[in-house]
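Quarterly update from the structural biology core.
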Amino acid sequence: QVQLVESGGGSVQAGGSLRLSCSVSGSYYFRRCMGWLRQGPGKEREWVSSIGTDGSTSYVDSVKGRFTISQDNAKNTLYLQMNSLKPEDTAMYYCAATLSDCYRRDFRFWGQGTQVTVSS
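Predicted structure, tokenized:
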């Protein structure tokens, strides 16, 4: 099992930055791939970014060049640096983990989420 706790959300004006953190605990077996997903108001949950155990990363096209996913294994923490934020980035952001390869995006473990609100 894996436990995930997000933090770092908040309200920011368009063009601003936020860094989300996810404190991770539990079995490494289930952390083959870590990721961030989001769900905006009235929208379906959307995959945002993933990072594998080899450090390889991937992003949804809408955040490429603006968001950066990283992890500090010594601190058991996953990050999402978000720059040049846009109102359409407004969403609840979730940290997630899976024992599957990242390309599957079938995340099994989820945090409670942290709200990001971007005003124009």
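The two ends are 40 Å apart (CA to CA).
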